[in-house]
Design brief:
Oligomer: single chain
Number of strands: 5
Number of domains: 2
Strand content: 5-15%
Structural class: mainly alpha
Order of helices and strands: EHHHHEHHEHHHEEH
Radius of gyration: 34 Å
Number of helices: 10
Strand order of the largest sheet: 3-5-4
Largest sheet: 3 strands, antiparallel
Distance between the termini: 133 Å
Shape: elongated
């Protein structure tokens, strides 16, 4: 692994539901959680993938011309610092991923480290169609600095961060990897969180792969998940409320958009009302379709043509005799 990525400035978390379009984010594959050799290794892989994804996202949103302008600026700054432009072997990483790393690093506020390493790690861990989680940059730094401290690395005197443990990071990644509806929340049960916190987006994949999980990504118990969820909610990372109960714990609604539980409850009520209206419309349309299919089709009426005898049906036993010629007149008296 390349050199650590020191942050230029530290961002502290804001209250619940504060994720917005103006924040900086790191986007990484969920499967990274069960990769690597340690929690610190996983977090640095998430950092590298987030840097490259930031550059890729900038290219898609702002276009090729703006991307090339940022790339030229990043290359000039690298040369101004007396450093050579990074290069990668084509078998290790694609040139486009290296360009995205150069552009993405200043976007997410990362200085230092190796952009070539970022590109290589991205290509090693990226899978088209994989499930991703999108984490605020300050939460990412909090988790990284906390894990570095747990591994005995001393932080700089000027660096202040709020502790975020590796277990709490995994729970956050699990919730953030779930699809959010248009009302700003998602439904999850504790078993789904358990599977996603191990890097699997479904419980079936989790059951198939949990036996081979590394030591730093072992499944969390229901008690550990509940305790982590309670602490994260108390720290204001998200708002949540219970939606349904069941033998296995039921479903909870989670929202990073709504700052308070009351706002989340109101959003759930709006969603439920809209869902009932949609179901009523769907039921009515379905009933109309079934009624249309159930109607007997009218038999086609055939108009007989003049001079054409109607064809008898199969049930009629009718035979026609040919007309006999008229008798010939006798020549002899």
């Amino acid at each position: 692994m390349g050199a650590p990525h020191p942050s230029t400035s530290h961002l502290s978390p804001r209250p619940a539901g504060s994720m917005s379009a103006t924040d900086l984010y790191f986007t990484a594959p969920l499967a990274l959680l069960h990769s690597g050799t340690s929690a610190l290794d996983v977090l640095e892989r998430c950092l590298s993938c987030g840097i490259v994804n930031a550059g890729i996202g900038y290219r898609k949103i702002h276009g090729e011309a703006a991307f090339q302008e940022k790339l030229a600026k990043a290359s000039a700054e690298t040369e101004a610092q007396g450093e050579d432009l990074p290069t990668v072997h084509p078998l290790d990483a694609t040139p486009s991923s290296l360009e995205a790393a150069l552009v993405g690093a200043p976007i997410v506020g990362v200085l230092g480290g190796s952009r070539a390493t970022d590109a290589i790690l991205y290509c090693q861990n990226h899978q088209p169609g994989a499930v991703f989680f999108r984490l605020r940059a300050d939460w990412m730094w909090n988790a990284l600095h906390t894990t570095r401290a747990d591994h005995g690395e001393e932080a700089e005197d000027s660096m202040v961060f709020k502790p975020l443990s590796w277990r709490e990071f995994r729970i956050l990644a699990a919730i953030l990897s779930a699809k959010v509806n248009t009302y700003g929340f998602t439904f999850l049960g504790w078993e789904s969180i358990q599977a996603r916190a191990c890097g699997f987006h479904s419980k079936a994949l989790f059951q198939a792969g949990k036996a081979s999980l590394p030591a730093h990504c072992q499944p969390m118990s229901r008690h550990d998940i509940r305790r982590g969820l309670d602490r994260l909610e108390a720290l204001g990372f998200y708002a949540r409320c219970r939606y349904a109960t069941g033998k296995r714990g039921g479903l909870m609604a989670y929202s990073f958009r709504h700052p308070k539980r009351e706002g989340l409850v109101a959003a759930i009520q709006q969603w439920a009302t809209a869902n009932q209206v949609f179901q009523a419309k769907t039921t009515a349309l379905r009933a109309a379709d079934l009624a249309a299919f159930a109607k007997p089709k009218p038999k086609p009426q055939v108009t007989p043509q003049a001079g054409v005898l109607p064809s008898p049906g199969p049930s009629h036993n009718v035979s026609f005799r040919p007309q006999e010629p008229p008798p010939r007149p006798c020549r002899y008296p």
